[in-house]
Amino acid sequence: MVHIKDDEQLMAQRLIEFEKLIKAQPQLPHNISTTLLRRFLHTTRGNLASAQRLLELNYSLRNKHAQIFIDRDPMDASSQQLLQVADLVPLPGLTPENNKLLFYRLIDYDADKFNFTASIKVFFMVADCRFATETEGRLSDGEIPIFDMAGYSLRHLTKTALTALRVYMKFVQEAHPVRLKEIHVLNCPTYLDKVLTVVKPFIKSEVFKLIHFHLPNADTPYKHFPRAMMPEEYGGEAGKMSDLKQHWMQLLQQQREYLMDVDNWQLNKCKKSSNNAANSMTQSLKTLEID
User: Fold this and answer.
1) pTM of this structure
2) Which of 40, 74, 63 is nearest to 266 (CA)?
3) What is the C-alpha to C-alpha distance for residues 12 and 46, in angstroms, rounded to an integer?
4) Which of 48, 55, 118, 289 has its CB 3.0 to 4.6 Å from that of 82, i.e. a possible disulfide?
5) How many whole angstroms separate alpha carbon 237 and alpha carbon 235?
6) Mean pLDDT of successive 10-residue segments in the chain (291 residues)?
7) What is d(CA 111, CA 250) in angstroms, rounded to the nearest whole number?
8) CB-CB contact of 160 with 115 (8 Å)
């Protein structure tokens, strides 16, 4: 893959070219925003062909698994219930290396209230909401998800829906427009091996190498990113988690129509582009940037 320096003027020119290229694909939604296209182009460092393949696979998988990516509502009962038991919050600001921190944790430890498939749907709704509203400033160079396992029990593990897990893993590793830098798992329990027995078969080896496991109450995560960027509950300066979460819940509500409008996500299967883009969707895609 040829990497193009993230020069603003050059990327702006490439974005215009990318918009024209995507509009020539009649099977894709006609109203993909410039903001979203910019993210795909940014992820592939300006490589038009790679950005197109990434976007096509993204929409292809969405349509193949419509029950997760299209048939959704951030205000329905299952989504609201999930948001009462878990936090899924992009943290403000960027690390000194220009990476974005994304924080996930349980806040209600009752496994009976936890719906795994709903958590996957909400995860992607938050991501789509974020990608749709990145209208100002420079995009992050990479993403660093942080999972706090405090309160996660073996009963939660039994709630894992393998079909939804498989879809989640395939999408985030092959079709998600991000450059994955690191993954941090906080407060690892003694039964971590049992958790890994379930999830590791779905994780690519190169992605697994990015995972850092941390013992309860350890300071080791802050060798990788500033503690100051964390919520107050973790000794940081980003504000209270409840306030950070409220911002994203309001944004989900504001973007509800966008998230639910099938015209934004559904492929037009009756049309095919002149260069047979449908074939490119089936090709093995290794576009996810892992640095």
Assistant:
1) 0.90
2) 63
3) 10
4) 118
5) 7
6) 61 94 94 95 96 98 98 98 98 96 98 98 98 87 97 98 98 97 98 97 97 96 97 97 97 98 92 48 45 53
7) 26
8) no
